[in-house]
Amino acid sequence: MFDPLANASKNADGTLVFQVEQGDLGGVTEDAMRAQFERLNDQSNEVCEIGEEEEDEMRVSLLTEMEEAGISTEDFNEMMAKELNIFNGDEYSFTKDLREGFDAGVSTSTADKIFDTLPDHVFWDIKRPIREDPESYWNKYNNARAPAGTNFFEMRSTERYFRSQKIKDNSQANISYYRKY
Question: How far apart are CA 6 and CA 80, in angstroms?
Answer without folding.
Answer: 19
